């Protein structure tokens, strides 16, 4: 009697499944069990689309069946699963035991049997476990897909909590020159196991997987010793009891190997093998994507580096350090740049900027703009002229382009012998001044529009003197805002880095700043915002290396000095100036007297803004040992009228400036100058 005569007699149907087009062929019994129309008696069966099969099988069961079929095809074994047949409303009609077998891994069609069962078989996976397994695979797929680099993919794979499996270690081996070489190891077993390069012809489980593309499961030490005696000795010393070796098939067909070792004997049940095979496929795809991304990123980094200046010039009296760190995802090429230019006058120009966008066009515009600024600076033009010509260049460069770009830029010219600076700013971040004791202050500077928006804008120049031992930082916004930070919380993070590197070489300071933003140290300072920007970072540090003034005890100069200008048309800088003074007094012993000093400064600045037509020049000097320091504030203006005591009424909105100074300051006075005056006041820390 033939099987096709016996099977219907025991209510068992026959079916086949084509992996080429998904079509399913069923005999009369299988069709009836699945609720499909009976075939014509004149034909051997019916051929139906995969959608018809999916419509009659519970969704979770269909996913499990396809996973089992994939595993059977890879391993050359048979697939077996229990599925629920449902009606259009989702009600379960019956349960079927489904079996499938592929002839070989290259076969395109599987065939098997379908039989009704009344109760779940003993080998069935409980629904809770099945749901847990599906949830795990979804989470694993998402985590692997989000990993941006090869290292991140390998770390993610090692951190996966495999359901029902607890490996003592994992390793990934890759093919290179007909050998298998380890690229990743995690866990105690992997750390203490040697993985010498193995020729593919070696009789070893990893090499067999690489040659055949089929996984190898070794459930016991005896099985390992029997099947692979040549490599048993090192495996025995590791003390493991079960091993799984799975193929990782790359885009070009090369088979790498994922190895897992287990302390306890593991039978590797079908559902566990399905999970491992599925994770191996996801890991293969993630590694393919990550390796392609790594290759693109390496090429982009080389291109970006070629657009940056080479070694910075050695300048007597001035230390210079620069960093460029691409941190964004995707093609890491963008518009951030810096430059250091030796000028014909003997001065040094330092430039930093950021072209709008993060693509190849931004990099091209950045390269052209950097060359143009270098040319204008080398001709000996003043900072405001350099930026004005650069804006005209960029404006004309974008004419006729569908995608016009603008750029922010800061141009600083410094005399290394004296520390005298001239700063011009085109929509860029203000520079940061760090005092010798690590105190970080934002240095407000006058500014104009970003480059390229107008053809002939104005760029006012802000003077400054970099004192001995002080450091000035120029940076792009990635240094402040990456990692979920805004501009203000990012500044607090940088302040910590400056405090931690007091007295250290400038190279160490630059490394520390990059580390707290884009390195391992970034995890210590998470930002308050859920949205994490990952912009590129450009950074230049300048430190005055002229001989420092020494105190009587020969120690570090404890003086702090602040000098800046508040223009009439930028009154919002009054708040910046108050913040800068507050930062300068961050360790002042008495908060009340610190607040009094800030209030006095605010009153002096308001008087200049209201009663004169010129800018306010602010100078603050903090001298003396901690706990006994003297703060002297002086605000100069071009007005000729001297302050005098007034007696305002209860409802008057002005006229109390002198009364406030009398009440707040320990002493105050007026110094006449050739063009105007300077009002000063003093505060003692121990008063």
TrEMBL record:
All copies of domain PPM-type phosphatase, residue ranges: 318-544
Keywords linked to the UniProt accession: Hydrolase
SUPFAM superfamilies tied to this protein: ATPase domain of HSP90 chaperone/DNA topoisomerase II/histidine kinase (SSF55874), GAF domain-like (SSF55781), PP2C-like (SSF81606)
InterPro entries: Bact_Sigma-Reg, GAF, GAF-like_dom_sf, HATPase_C_sf, PPM-type-like_dom_sf, PPM-type_phosphatase-like_dom
Protein name, per record: SpoIIE family protein phosphatase
Organism: Streptomyces polyrhachis
